[in-house]
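Posted in: Protein Modeling Q&A

I'm a second-year student putting together a small comparison for a lab meeting, and my supervisor asked me to include a predicted structure for dipeptidase E. I've never done this before, so apologies if this is the wrong subforum. The sequence is pasted below exactly as I got it from our records. If anyone can share the C-alpha cell output, I'd also love a short note on what stands out.
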Amino acid sequence: MRLLLLSSSTLHGQDYLAYALPAIAAHVPAGATVAFVPYALADHDAYTATVSAALAPLGLTVVGVHAGEDPRGVLDSAGAVFVGGGNTFRLLSALQRTGLLVTLRDRVGSGMPYLGSSAGTNVACPTIRTTNDMPIVEPDGFAALGLVPFQINAHYLDTDPDTTHMGESREERLHQFLEENDVPVLALREGAWLHVTDGVATVAGSTASRLLRRGRDVEELAPGTDVSGLLETSPHYDVGGRRSV
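Accepted answer (user: helix_wrangler)
Welcome! Here is the predicted structure, written out as C-alpha cells:
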C-alpha cells in the first residue's frame, strides 16, 4: 500500500495543505485525477473546491465522490484518493452508509495511493478510538479501514507545564486507551505525517512524533525515523475482559 497520512491539513499562518505539497507531489502520480472524500465536513461542495484549488499547482484534478450518483464509481475512475479532515465520527458514518469503507479498503489494498489528513488519517487505522473528535453522529461501530495495524493520534498536543487546566492531557488520555487496548499509538504532532510505501513506514514532516505502547516508556521519533516494525503489529482491543481482535 501507498499511504501519506497527515496529522493536519493546515499549519498556523499557512495556506491549506501548503506545508505538505512537496510530499503530496511525490506521493500522487503526476496528472492524476484525485477522488476527494469530503464527508468529514458538512459543505461538501465548498470543501472540494478548497482542495481543488490547493492541489491545482501540482497539476492534479480533484473530483468529489459526492458529485455523482455512485461515490464508488468516482473512486474507481480515479488515480488516487484524498480523505479530508473534519469530524471523524461523521466521516466514518458516511463511509459506512455509502459503501465506500469497503471500496476504499479494496482499492488502496490494490495499490491506489491514499492521502489522508486528520480525520482521514484516523480512519486509516483499525478503529477511530484514538480520535480527538466529539461524536456528533453515531456510526455503526468504530471499526475503520485498517490500512495500518496500529492506532494514530492526529493533532497531538504536548502537555503545557504551565497550564491550570485540570482535565486529562492528551498523553493521559492515550495511556487510558492503552490500559484497555494493547496496540501502539503513533502520536503525530501538527506538521508531522506518516509515509508508507513498499512495506516501509517512515515518520516525517517539520515536527517530531511520539510512540506510545502499553507498559513501555513513550518514545520521541525524529523526522525520518523508520517505523516499519509497526506494520507487523497484531492489535488487541478491549483486553480488560470484553473482547480481543
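A couple of things worth pointing out for your meeting: The mean pLDDT is 94. Residues 34 and 62 are 5 Å apart (CA to CA).
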